[in-house]
């Protein structure tokens, strides 16, 4: 599953931003994913600008860490 893959990615030395897109999620799941380090969690259907904003935010945060 996506959350399981995310946990494996967090164990790697590279800090890879992860944006979840889900049709089966809920606010509780998204909250847990964000708390555990996901850059964003979007629930379908979402506005395309939400995805663009999440991408820009993830890239900005990653650049700030570099």
| Largest pleated sheet | 2 strands, parallel
Distance between the first and last residues' Cα: 29 Å
Number of helices: 3
Label the overall shape.
flat
The number of distinct β-strands equals 2
Uncertain stretches of 5 or more adjacent residues: none
Q: Please state how the strands of the largest beta sheet are arranged side by side.
A: 1-2
Radius of gyration of CA atoms, rounded to a whole number: 12 Å
Oligomer: single chain
Structural class of the helices, strands and pairings? alpha+beta
Helix residue percentage: 40-55%
Strand content: 5-15%
Mean pLDDT: 91
Give the SSE string: HEHEH
Task: Describe what this molecule looks like in 3D.
The protein has helices at residues 2-10, 27-35, 48-65; strands at 19-22, 40-43. 6% of the residues are buried. It has 66 residues and is of the alpha+beta class. The chain is flat, with a radius of gyration of 12 Å. It has a two-stranded parallel sheet. Helix 2 links the parallel strand 1 (19-22) and strand 2.
Keywords, please?
66 residues; flat; alpha+beta; 55% helix; two-stranded parallel ribbon
């Amino acid at each position: 599953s996506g959350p399981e893959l995310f946990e494996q990615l967090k164990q790697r030395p590279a800090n890879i931003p992860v944006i979840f897109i889900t049709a089966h999620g809920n606010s509780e799941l998204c909250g847990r994913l964000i708390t555990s380090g996901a850059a964003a969690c979007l629930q379908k259907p979402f506005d395309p600008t939400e995805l663009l904003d999440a991408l820009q935010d993830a890239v900005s945060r990653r650049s700030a860490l570099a």
